[in-house]
Amino acid sequence: MDSFDPRTYRDALGQFATGVTIITARDADNNPVGVTANSFNSVSLDPPLILWSLSKSSRSMPAFEQAADFNVHILASDQDALSNRFASRSADKFAGLDIGDAGPPLLEGCTARLRCKTRYNYEGGDHIIFVGEVVGYEHDEKPPLLFHNGDYADKKRRIAKPDAGVTSAPVIGKADDVVTYSSSDRIATITLNSPDTRNALAENVIAALVDALQRADNDPDISCVILTGAGASFCSGGNIKQIKALTADQGMSPLELENWYRTHIQRIPNTMDAMSVPVIAAVNGHAIGAGCDLACMCDIRIAADDATFAESFLRVGIIPGDGGAWLLPRIVGMARASQMLLTGEFINAAKAQDYGLVSETLEPAKLLDRAMELAQQIVQYPPIAIRKSKRLLKDARDVTLKEHLDQAAIWQGVLQQMDDHREAVDAILEKRPPNFQGK
Ligand SMILES: Cc1cc2nc3c(=O)[nH]c(=O)nc-3n(C[C@H](O)[C@H](O)[C@H](O)COP(=O)(O)O)c2cc1C
Description:
This protein is an alpha/beta fold and 439 residues long. The chain has helices at 6-14, 61-66, 80-86, 203-218, 240-248, 254-263, 267-274, 290-297, 324-332, 334-343, 349-355, 367-379, 383-396, 401-415, 419-429, and strands at 18-19, 21-26, 32-37, 41-45, 48-55, 69-74, 112-124, 127-139, 146-148, 151-152, 179-184, 187-192, 224-229, 279-283, 286-288, 300-304, 308-310, 347-348, 360-362. The chain starts with 5 loop residues before the first helix and ends in a 10-residue tail after the last helix.
């Protein structure tokens, strides 16, 4: 007991199975809010009290802090898609669900539902602990949904039934892990989730991010990815302490360092460069150093109007080791890229938009809604054509016009023979929405 290793502790916690709940309430404007939580527990029978905790980085925090009541839904084992939907930072978690107009939303198909009055809120480190008094209870015989070791416990034994319009996809790693992955309606949301380090790209974050990106790209049911950061920053770049340790503690030679770059941070640009599914960066707060480069690897960049960008490598005596010097001039032009790289200056969102580094800036509260809106515009189109459009644009950077035209002609030949192309044309002529099959 003389030393405490947070990582070992976290892994050990993951060994305990927990039940999965969705907690719902209404915000001050009567809009429904809801989050997936597994921190639920019963603490007293007289009076009947329960507690659960919500991360301070949750977008729903202000709504729960002022809500006089909330509902706890203990999910049934076939509700993993619903759990994923409420574990995403999506603006429209309640789309297609029948929840009534007033009072905390009540969801159907659960193992149990508890109606609660908010009694106390407690400071709880990186979470706020909510205590509620149970004033109503109903239950069903359905087995509960369990979470264990970073995944839904009995997933392998059953085929997940997607709920209306929801694609089932497990969260990668543990619920509160360094990168979270959720998906719904053909859109995957990947969130860097180490707000305490401003989402620095530590080794475990790099591995989890690469896994999440590959997972989205390998899934034919995904047509767009939103990449964002939990908390106040998008990404603060490389983990300075870890970078220092490479030479200070581990005494790496130049050749070992070269190999480290190839096998760690450079996995991100290599993965991004090979992807077919488009990625939208929703840049909240800081995008500094490798964080700025990470945004540059995405296909579309939008930013909160308090976002800050910098190619800050010279400040610590190094160069962009992750492709920044290749990516940035292709986005903002050589002169502006040189200015950013050589001065290390911090530029605000307005200047970033002026440079063409981001295409839109928005109030922070509207950033993810807008990213979702753009993603929804993209995913309405035939899945294969979306991926080919992205590849055509990316591949065009490195080829002659003649080579590009050859590639476009060959791909167009394939796309025009696909059912989805015929369906798109028929739908326009028949003035009805299309129904694409990815064929
Ligand atoms: C199985 C599971 C359990 C979770 N448990 C919690 C939890 O207890 N507390 C919490 O703050 N987040 C938990 N999360 C993560 C939140 O659901 C997630 O951060 C969500 O995006 C919050 O939504 P919001 O930012 O729109 O408020 C859990 C996620 C999953 C998949």
